[in-house]
Specification:
By secondary structure, the chain is mainly β. The protein is 8% helix and 67% strand. The radius of gyration is 17 Å and the shape is globular.
């Protein structure tokens, strides 16, 4: 019984932390990724099992053309969840509004995002779209990730996952990047380290996600 409960909690952790930050009511979340040309941070709180509200900061900077940045209030909404005995699928969307800038021009900014994923305790695949609109500029980051757990860990153990990530960004100096990543999960904490290759060469990226 205890092992079954631990397995259920471990799967819930994967679903809540890895997929999207929409959890039980009253749960806070932090999600941050630092990339070579695209970085973002989101922090907020779930007010129902289907909706979360928070703040987000986004930055696109390729070193060529105008950099794009935005700070917005965001709302994330779970559109559909499929709960099966040993797997789960999710579709969620998000939107934000605030201030942003492209180069030296500043004004209102908005963001939209969409995420679809499926996972069980061995495999995980995720597609995420993130768009930022600022005065005289916009950027879109598309991320496709596929992951595999080499072994199953209990809820209170560190669980390793190995991923391959393919990402595309529009805009001058952008394009495709791809590479492997190591993800370590422990209860409601996820740590990620990527090594990506693009037209800019090889570069390291890092991410963290947590519920608290």
């Amino acid at each position: 019984m205890r092992k079954a409960l631990a397995a259920l909690l471990a799967f819930a952790c994967i679903s809540l932390v890895q997929a999207q930050m929409i959890s039980a009511p009253g749960i806070n979340f932090l999600k941050a990724e630092y990339g070579h040309t695209f970085s973002y941070t989101e922090v907020g709180r779930s007010f129902s099992g289907f909706r979360a509200i928070g703040f987000g900061g986004y930055s696109f900077n390729t070193g060529e053309g105008k950099s794009v940045e935005a700070e917005v209030v965001i709302i994330n909404q779970l559109v559909k969840r499929w709960n099966n005995q040993d797997s789960q699928g999710n579709i969620s969307v998000g939107a934000g509004i605030g201030r942003g800038r492209a180069g030296n021009r500043e004004g209102w900014a908005s963001t939209v995002s969409a995420l679809a994923d499926w996972e069980d305790r061995h495999w995980h695949i995720m597609l995420q779209e993130q768009a930022v609109f600022v005065p005289s500029g916009s950027r879109l980051a598309s991320t496709l990730m596929g992951g595999w757990a080499p072994w199953l860990a209990e809820y209170d153990e560190w669980a390793p996952w190995i991923y391959w990530t393919l990402q595309h960004e529009n805009g001058e100096g952008s394009g495709f990047s791809h590479g492997p990543s190591l993800v370590l999960m422990h209860q409601d904490l996820l740590l990620e380290l990527r090594v990506m290759h693009s037209s800019h060469g090889y570069h390291a990226e890092a991410g963290i996600r947590s519920l608290f």
